[in-house]
Structure formats: C-alpha cells, structure tokens
Amino acid sequence: MTNTHPRISPMATTYPASSIRKMFNLALDYPDAVKLTVGEPDFTTPEHIKAAGIRGIEHDNTRYVANAGIPELRAAIARKYSGRWNRGVGPENVMVSFGAMEALTFALDVTVSPGDEVIIPDPSFPNYLGQVHRLGATAVSVPVTEDNDFKLRAEDVRAAITDRTAAVVLNSPSNPLGSVMDRADLEQIADLAEEHGFTVISDEVYDEMVFDDAVFTSIAEVRPGFDRYLAIGSFSKTYAMTGWRCGFVIGAHDFIAPMALLQEGLTSSLPGFIQEAAVAAIDGPQDVVESMVASYAERRELMVERINAIDGLSLLRPAATFYAWVNVKDWGLNSWDLATQLLEKHNLATIPGSAFGPAGEGYLRLTFAVSPETINTACDRLEAFAASR
To answer: Which end of the chain, N or C, is surrounded by fewer C-beta atoms within 10 Å?
Structure first.
C-alpha cells in the first residue's frame, strides 16, 4: 500500500511567514542601506554584566543547571517584581527562559489547547500569530487604532470574547506602536479574565523603556489577588543583552510548575553563566539603564521633529519603546510597496506596517535605537522620496 502521509506537517507548512524577516532578507542585497529595521539596542552590554558572565565561565559554571533557572536568578527576579508590583512574588512564581520568545511559548503551552482562541492586538509582534498557530489554536485579532492613541481598549477585547477564549495577549509598552495601555483598561481586562476564565498573557519586555510622564502599569498590579496572568519579561532590551537570550515569565505557581517539565524537553536549561550575568544586571547599578533610556528619549524627539516636518508623513510621539509608528497613508502606496521603493530607490530599509497585521497597513515602523546621524540620514532620504513623488 502506498504511504500517502505527508513528509511535512500541516502546522509547519502553514506557519505564518514574517514580513519582517522577508524585508530583512531583501535588505541584505543592499549592504550600504541605512537600516531602521532591527529592534535592538545599539549599546553594548554593560561591563559589570559581562564581567559576571565571564566569571561564571572561569568558575566552571558550564554544566547543566535547574530547568526553571538557578535559584539566585529566580530569587532576584522575584525580589525586583515584588517591590515593583507591591505583591508577593517568590522564586516559585518565576520561570527562566531562552529570551521572551520561549517565555511566550511556555505561557501559551500551559494555557491554550487545540481549538481554543487567543485574542491578540492588531497591529502587534507577528510571532504571536505563529505561536498560536503552532498550538492548533486560532488567533482572534482586535484592531488598535490611531484614534485611540494606539492603545488597546478593554471594550474591544470584550467584544472579541467567546466561550472558546483561552487567553488574551497584551503588549504594553507596545512593539510596534510605542504606546502604553491605560490602567483603567487593564483593570477591566482583569475583570473580564475573572468573569470568563481566560488568562492574560502580558508581554512586558519594554517595561523600563518609558518616557516623560507616561506611566506603565503591569496587569500583575491592577487587582490585589488577581492571578489569572502570566507576565513576560526579558533582559534583552533593558540591559542591551539581546544575544544573551535571557528572559523569564512570572505567574501563579500552578502555571509556572509545569514549565520546568516543558523546558526539560526543549532545551534543558539556560546556561548558568548567562544566568549569573542576569543576576548582576538586576542587583548591579541601574544608572546604565537610565542612561540608555534618556538617550532613546532624545533620539525620539529628533525622530518626531524630522518625521512631522516631511510632507505626507505624521507621527504620534511614542510614549515608550524605541519604535516610531509612522502614518504614510497620504503617500498613497501600500506599506510593502513603499518599503520596497524606499530600499530600492533611496537605500533606506524600513519595516512595512502590514508586517504587524492588517491594521498596520498605511504605516511604517522605524526604530530610533540608532545614532542621531543615522536618524537624520534616514529622514533626509524620506524627504527625497517625498520630493520625488
């Protein structure tokens, strides 16, 4: 009998492709292009953090460690967020992961089953779609609009809830929108989670990259005793540690406990010397973080001033992160065509808004985690495009 079973699984063959990666690959053919694409600090990892990682290697902390993370790091994360959220967080509430992406994997794995629905903002980080797809669940998108200052609203989440809703993914501060959700909406979403029995998965990797008088609130601090949350964090953005791949997820112990078993079957554990560096990041001086955020704030002002002076472009001042979400609708091109033309004709690499969901059409995402000189050069090229139309 002929074996007709496919060699490749349907999940893999239908996994949603990232237009961010597609544009990144296209830009490889333009090595001299000015790039406002990659969401990565342009700072190096602070010296005291690097020194701790090196010491860990020199002291032979190069063997397997606990699946859930070394006790010192889980305790350090618990201390930090107990104080920040004014609620009891212990090491048993913390799972260490390979970056925030694996933390998201764990959060979805323990809360979502095949056939369930997961509500996500649109626009949002495109890997949310892939992670939900991988589990055989359905992503239900809720549009986030400029009319609402690019803030996800509880009433829109409420309208998307069904009896199959297992989780809602929040991302505040938002990549790509640069917005920070209002506390009142978070309180209402917490109430909805209690009422309907779903989990709130909150991607908070930009929690310390907040500007001016904007106030970031975690879903973990909006209601005393609220425990239908999983808060995802990372050392990548805050401490310029993207390549160290150290993230974490915080939540109720019954959520966290199975994650160690999942880690055993995935990657065993994050290297111990990397976790030692992460402990140094939390326990060491925080002025390095404040300095980086102050620098991003200055570059944001330059980006806002330059973009809003270009005919046909507009930009709401980002309250957080290092992303500018630029309205390009007046230019009359879809965002992919515009990004392609900017690359091919003006040697400028950007990310089309449609890469982040249908509601992202008509926008470009530009990062300002680059030098002021790069921002000025990029805006000169946007002006040249505007003049050539």
So the answer is: N
Ranges of residues in the chain with a pLDDT under 70 are 1-3
Q: What is the DSSP letter of 369?
A: -
For CA atoms 356, 357, 358, 359, the dihedral sign is negative
What interhelical angle do 287-308 and 372-388 show, nearest 10? Answer: 20
In whole angstroms, give the CA distance from residue 121 to residue 281. 31
Phi, psi of 15 (to 5 degrees): -60, 130
SS3 content of the chain, % helix, strand, coil (to 5): 45, 15, 40
Q: Is the pTM of this model over 0.85?
A: yes
Run of H or E residues at 281: helix 272-283
Place of tokens 């917005």: 179
Are 39 and 322 a contacting pair, CB within 8 Å?
Answer: yes
pLDDT one-digit tens code per residue, 17-69: 888 888 988 999 999 999 999 889 999 999 999 999 999 999 999 999 999 99
Give the integer Cα–Cα distance in Å for 203 and 125.
Answer: 10
Peptide bond into 123 cis (omega under 30): yes
By the 10 Å C-beta count (0-12 exposed, 13-18 middle, 19+ buried), 114 is classed as: exposed
- Would you give the end-to-end CA distance of the chain in angstroms? 62
pLDDT in tens, 96-127: 999 999 999 999 999 999 999 999 999 999 99
- Counting beta carbons within 10 angstroms of the beta carbon of residue 70, is it exposed (0 to 12), middle (13 to 18) or buried (19 or more)? buried
Which residue pairs from 149-155 have beta carbons closer than 8 angstroms and sit at least 24 positions apart in sequence?
149/179, 149/316, 150/174, 150/177, 150/178, 150/179, 150/316, 150/325, 151/179, 151/180, 151/181, 151/182, 151/185, 152/121, 152/181, 152/185, 153/185, 154/184, 154/185, 154/186, 154/188, 154/189, 154/192, 155/188
* Among 319, 299, 300, 316, residue whose Cα is nearest residue 308: 316
Give the span between the Cα atoms of 118 and 105, in whole angstroms: 13
Q: In this structure, are residues 68 and 263 in contact, taking their beta carbons and an 8 Å threshold?
A: yes
Q: State how far the Cα of 153 lies from the Cα of 144, in Å rounded to an integer.
A: 8
